[in-house]
Amino acid sequence: MIMGTIRVKPVQNNNTYTSAYGKWFMQVLLNVALSVEDLAYHISLDSGVERSKVAEIARAIVKQIDELLCNGHAIRIPHLGLLKLSVKSKGAKTVSEFHAGKDIENLHLILKPDKEIKAELEKIKFEKFYYEDALAKKNAAQEEENQEGGENNG
Questions:
Q1: Which of 13, 29, 73, 130 shows the smallest number of beta carbons within 10 Å?
Q2: Do 10 and 24 meet the contact criterion of CB atoms below 8 Å apart?
Q3: What is the pLDDT of residues 63-96, one digit of tens each?
Q4: Rama region for 107: left / alpha / beta (φ>0; ψ in -120 to 50; rest)
Q5: What is the pLDDT of residue 21?
Q6: What is the pLDDT of residue 56?
Q7: What is the pLDDT of residues 132-148, one digit of tens each?
Q8: How far is CA 122 from CA 46, 49, 51, 90, in A?
Q9: For the chain, what are the domain ranges?
Q10: Between helices 51-69 and 36-47, what is the axis angle to 10°?
Q11: Residue 43: what are its φ and ψ, rounded to 5°?
Q12: If we measure between CA atoms, which residue out of 17, 46, 7, 14 comes closest to residue 131?
């Protein structure tokens, strides 16, 4: 069972061209992105398989996923979901006016989670995080440490 806490931070919408202008929304505060080698380390702890072997296999999986997606395949990963590509395109009045090279604006990688991972995601707790509060706590702790250090030296 996976259970975690995701930190979120309030972010104000500054886009004056939207009805959401000035409203506050929560945005996930990401931790450091892990590399394939980092992932291999964690997998090796769980599996007992040597980290270098896990990393080699992980790199091969990533290479194949990339190649298969780029050739129009969707990939179902059990207990995770369906990986697939999607595009954002401009609208055309008729099919004959649509030009793929000109009218496609963005390509996106989408993970459509399966039922198992969706159920796990629903268990995640959220914690509101403010940089100002964290900085104030850090400064208070440093101030307290400085005071204690000063008392012991005098």
A1: 130
A2: yes
A3: 999 999 999 999 999 989 999 999 999 888 889 8
A4: beta
A5: 94
A6: 94
A7: 776 677 777 788 888 87
A8: 24, 31, 31, 34
A9: 34-73
A10: 130
A11: -65, -40
A12: 7
